[in-house]
């Protein structure tokens, strides 16, 4: 028995070594290799998530920039439209001024005389204007400022003229152009006050249809479409032969198209 035990132990040792050698030469990964592979796979998943997250953030940032660009383009278009509309109003004002100035120059100062002021006193006659050039000079000075686009200075000059010469033949003109100076500056409150005051103080003035028309325009600009329509109808009914009547009809047609 004693001689067989060492032999058995030798055989067992040889078997273990053979088993270990067989395991070492196998293609199966070791536990360490498996853990390493698992870590690499987790790292790859994390990288992909980070990459996807960055792409989402970039996409959101691009969307935000594009939305802001669309908003800015809309604002630019709105401002461009308002600027062009303002330019059209100014051009129309200048054309109107030129036409009126031409008629004034062709007809002479005498065409403006002959009516009475609201308080019953006689207005300054053409002869009196000719003999007192200070009145005409004051009016022309204010009018020239208006033509030159110096609206603030024109407003001050027309206000001064109105205070100094309330009963002159130019008084109704000065009051009307005061309103126009405010109107072209889009200061609609004082503009409308000037036009309404002109209508009330000089009801027989040839400027009344124009003052009514501009008052209606102001109501339109301020969104008071009912008042604007009523005043435009008043121009058509009370002054059908005035040049303002044609413009009143055009604005009413426009309001009909706009559903206002």
TrEMBL record:
KW Coiled coil (keyword) present: yes
Stored Pfam families: TolA_bind_tri, TPR_6, YfiO
Residue ranges constituting the YbgF trimerisation domain according to the UniProt record: 39-108
Domain of life: Bacteria
All copies of domain Outer membrane lipoprotein BamD-like, residue ranges: 136-207
UniProt entry keywords in alphabetical sequence: Cell cycle, Cell division, Coiled coil, Periplasm, Signal
Main location, first listed in the record: periplasm
InterPro entries registered for this protein in UniProt: BamD-like, CpoB, CpoB_C, TPR-like_helical_dom_sf, TPR_rpt, YbgF_tri
GO cellular component terms, A-Z: outer membrane-bounded periplasmic space
GO biological process, one term: FtsZ-dependent cytokinesis
Protein location: Periplasm
Coiled-coil residues: 36-89
Signal peptide as annotated in the record: 1-18
Family (UniProt): Belongs to the CpoB family.
HAMAP family noted in UniProt: CpoB
NCBIfam families: tol_pal_ybgF (TIGR02795)
Function: Mediates coordination of peptidoglycan synthesis and outer membrane constriction during cell division.
Protein known as: Cell division coordinator CpoB
Organism per entry: Abyssibacter profundi
Protein's gene: ygbF
């Amino acid at each position: 028995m004693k001689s067989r035990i060492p032999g058995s132990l030798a055989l067992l040792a040889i078997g273990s070594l053979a088993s270990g050698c067989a395991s070492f030469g196998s293609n199966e990964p070791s536990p360490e290799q498996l853990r390493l592979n698992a870590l690499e796979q987790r790292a790859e998943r994390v990288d992909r998530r980070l990459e996807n997250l960055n792409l989402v953030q970039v996409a959101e940032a691009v969307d935000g920039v594009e939305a802001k660009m669309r908003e800015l383009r809309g604002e630019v278009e709105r401002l461009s439209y308002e600027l062009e509309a303002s330019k059209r109003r100014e051009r129309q004002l200048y054309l109107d001024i030129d036409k009126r100035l031409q008629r004034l120059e062709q007809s002479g100062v005498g065409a403006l005389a002959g009516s009475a002021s609201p308080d019953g006193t006689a207005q300054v006659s053409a002869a009196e204007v000719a003999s007192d050039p200070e009145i005409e000079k004051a009016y022309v000075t204010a009018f020239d400022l208006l033509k030159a686009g110096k609206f603030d200075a024109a407003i001050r000059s027309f206000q001064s003229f109105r205070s100094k010469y309330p009963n002159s033949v130019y008084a109704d003109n000065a009051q009307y152009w005061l309103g126009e100076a405010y109107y072209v500056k889009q200061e609609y409150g004082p503009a409308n006050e000037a036009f309404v005051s002109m209508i009330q103080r000089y009801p027989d003035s040839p400027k009344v249809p124009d003052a009514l028309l501009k008052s209606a325009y102001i109501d339109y600009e301020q969104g008071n479409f009912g008042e604007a329509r009523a005043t435009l109808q008043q121009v058509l009914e009370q002054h059908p032969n005035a040049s303002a009547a044609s413009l009143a009809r055009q604005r009413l047609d426009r309001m009909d198209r706009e559903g206002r």
